[in-house]
């Protein structure tokens, strides 16, 4: 049955869903990966597709930007459409000096300045962590002989922030000093919702810019197209 934000029927989604922020990127991914992709939802222009990759079912759907938007879609997918694992494929800003534009980050955990997970268990600072099996599968895919990787693949903690344009003074440097690799805006929410529903989750992120050195930042168009390395790892995790 359709939900307030997804106009699909049970069975329309595969057990594994890739989720980029941008619905147009969802369409591009579906066209790149699948010969048989069909549109399963388009409420609010948030396009979702289902098809097969190498004979295995897979769905791709946009999430929108930010933790509230991601939480709405992930909650409906896990609770109403039989989805068992969600792999976010998004862009992120580099924080650690060794992380370069074009690199890929497998987010094993996500700090956050959002209250969304803090509200889950009163009195508890929730730890937003990726599913170990999915993270391991993505990492192993990055080490495989056939990996024609554009940039370096890193695995480690990121931060999911609410603000895109506002950063408290000195925060980026302090995060870097604490081993944080990159910043984006959704993974902590995804890991929280997955924990709530006993599901699996991972974020595989392409570094589109660097907060401490803007000389190599991607253009808006590059942010939409330079994600094939991360996509390959995400598909490996989805079908592991
Ligand atoms: O490229 P996507 O997946 O949208 O991810 C990043 O880009 C958006 C900000 O430009 C935020 O959603 C952030 O998390
Ligand atoms: O949230 C994000 C995503 C990409 N790049 C950033 O600097 N921040």
From TrEMBL:
Keywords: Glycosyltransferase, Transferase. Pfam families: PNP_UDP_1. It comes from the Bacteria. It catalyses: uridine + phosphate = alpha-D-ribose 1-phosphate + uracil. One of its GO terms (biological process) is purine nucleoside catabolic process. InterPro entries: DeoD-type, Nucleoside_phosphorylase_CS, Nucleoside_phosphorylase_d, Nucleoside_phosphorylase_sf. The keyword Transferase applies. GO terms for cellular component: cytosol. One of its GO terms (molecular function) is uridine phosphorylase activity. PROSITE patterns: PNP_UDP_1. Its EC number is 2.4.2.3. Belongs to the PNP/UDP phosphorylase family. NCBIfam families: deoD (TIGR00107), PRK05819.1 (NF004489). This is Uridine phosphorylase. It comes from Actinomyces bowdenii.
């Amino acid at each position: 049955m359709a939900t307030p934000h997804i106009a699909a029927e049970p069975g329309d989604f595969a057990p594994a869903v890739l989720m980029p922020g941008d619905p147009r990127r969802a369409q591009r991914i579906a066209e790149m990966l699948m010969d048989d992709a069909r549109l399963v939802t388009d409420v609010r222009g948030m396009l979702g597709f289902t098809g097969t990759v190498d004979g295995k079912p897979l769905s791709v759907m946009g999430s929108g930007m930010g933790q509230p938007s991601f939480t709405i879609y992930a909650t409906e997918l896990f609770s109403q459409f039989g989805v068992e694992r969600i792999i976010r494929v998004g862009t992120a800003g580099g924080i650690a000096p060794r992380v370069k534009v074009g690199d890929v980050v497998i987010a094993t955990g996500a700090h956050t300045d959002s209250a969304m997970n803090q509200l889950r268990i009163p009195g508890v600072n929730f730890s937003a962590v990726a599913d170990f099996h999915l993270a391991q599968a993505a990492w192993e895919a990055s080490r495989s002989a056939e990996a024609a990787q554009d940039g370096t693949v890193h695995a480690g903690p990121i931060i999911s922030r609410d603000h895109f344009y506002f950063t408290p003074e000195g925060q980026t440097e302090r995060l870097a000093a604490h081993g944080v690799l990159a910043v984006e805006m959704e993974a902590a929410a995804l890991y929280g919702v997955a924990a709530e529903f006993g599901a699996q989750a991972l974020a595989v992120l392409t570094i589109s810019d660097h907060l401490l050195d803007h000389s190599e930042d991607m253009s808006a168009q590059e942010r939409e197209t330079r994600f094939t390395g991360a996509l390959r790892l995400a598909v490996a995790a989805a079908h592991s």
